[in-house]
Amino acid sequence: MVGAIFLILFLYLVNQGIFRFFKNRHKFFSVSLMNRLYFYHFIFWLTYYIYALNNPSDSKNYYYNTRRYTGEWLDLYGTSTTFLEFIAYPFTVSLDLPYVVVMVIFAWIGYLGFIFTYLFFRENIPVKIKLFKRWDFLFILMFLPNMHFWTSSLGKGSVIFLGIMMFVYALKVWKKRWFFLILGALIIYHVRPHVFMFMVVGTGLGFMSGNKRISMGQKAGAFLAMIVLLVLIQDKVLAVVNLGGSENVVSDFQDFTSTRAQGLSEDAGSGVDMASYPLPVKLFTFWFRPLFIDAPGVLGLIVSAENLLYLLITFQILKKDFISFIRKSPPLVKTSFVVFFMTSLAMTFVMSNLGIIMRQKSMVMYFLFFVIYYYMAEKKYKKIVKLRKLRLRKEQVAELNKVQVQQ
C-alpha cells in the first residue's frame, strides 16, 4: 500500500505537465478542478480496491492470469480480454508490481479519460448551465460516482473510457488532433471491437448529416470507406458474440442473445428478465435501473441515487422542440446521439444483470449527457441573444426619442 501511495503522488506531479500541455491549448482549462477531480477519483480507486479484496472481481482475474502466463508478451496481443492482459503484462510480470500498484496505474488511465471528457464538453459547449437552477451541470457530470467507480481499476472500463473520450475530443479538429484520434480509435477497437463499430457508424452518420459543407460526392466516398472498414473488422466484431464462423448471422445472433441474457440473469443474484420486456422497457432498464426497489446491495443503492439523477436530467429533453433540435444539430451532437442510441440498443439484447448493466452503461451515458447539455446550452444562448436584441432595440428607441425631443 505504501508503494501505491507514492505512485499516486508521483502521478499527481506527472499530471501537472499534462495540465500545462492542455492549458497552453485551451485557456478555459481549469487546473484546480482537475486536481480536485484527481483525488476524488482515487477515493474510488481505494473503494474499488477494498471491494475487490472482499468480492469476485475481474481486476483480480486480469492480474493473476497475466502473472501465471508463461508465453511471450507479444503473443498476448489481440482484442477484448487478451488486450487487457497484453497491457497488464509489463506491470504484472516484467516489473513484478503488486496488485494494488497495478490498480493505481489503471485508475490513472481512467482518470485521463476524465481529462478528455472535460475538454470535450467545455470546448464544444462554452455556455455554463445551472442544473435545476442551482448546480453547475458540468461540475456534476465530472463527479458522478458510478463513472469513477468503474473506471478506477484494472479492467476494460478504465481503458476504453480513455479511448472513447480521447476519440471524441479529437473529432472537433481531427486534422490537428490526428494522433489522439488514431490512438483513441485503436484503444476502442482493441478493447471492444463492437463499440468501435458503433463509433465508426455514429461518427459517419453524424458528420455526413450534420455538415452541410460536405458535398454529396464526399459523403458517398466517406460512406463507402465506412463500409469497407466495417467489412475488414467484421470477423473481430462477430467474434465478440461467438459468430465468427456463422453461416446465418441473424438466427445465430438471436440464439446467442437469448442464451447470454439467460446466463446473465442468473449471475450474481441481480438478474432481470430483459428478454420478456418490450423494447422501451429494455432501454429504460439499461439507462436508469436499478432504482432503489431493485438495487443489488449497498452499491446498488448508491447507483440508484445516481440513476434517479440521470432520469431527472433526461427529463430536460422531453420537450416538443427536441426532435427539431436533433435534426438541425451540429455533427458532434448527431454523432453522440447515434452512438448512444445504437450502443444502448445493442446492449439491451444481452444485458440481464443489474450489476453488469451498472458497469457497461458507463461507456455511453456521457454521450446522452453531451446531447442534453448542448440542447440546454443552445436554448440558453438563444434566450441571451433575444434579450440582447430586445435591449438594443429599446436603447435605439430611447435614443430616437431623445433626438426627437431635442429637435
Automatic annotation (TrEMBL):
Coiled coil: none annotated. Keywords: Membrane, Transmembrane, Transmembrane helix. The keyword Metal-binding does not apply. The chain crosses the membrane at residues 37-53, 74-91, 97-121, 142-171, 177-208, 220-241, 297-318, 338-357, 363-381. It comes from the Bacteria. The keyword Chaperone does not apply. This is Oligosaccharide repeat unit polymerase. It comes from Autumnicola patrickiae.
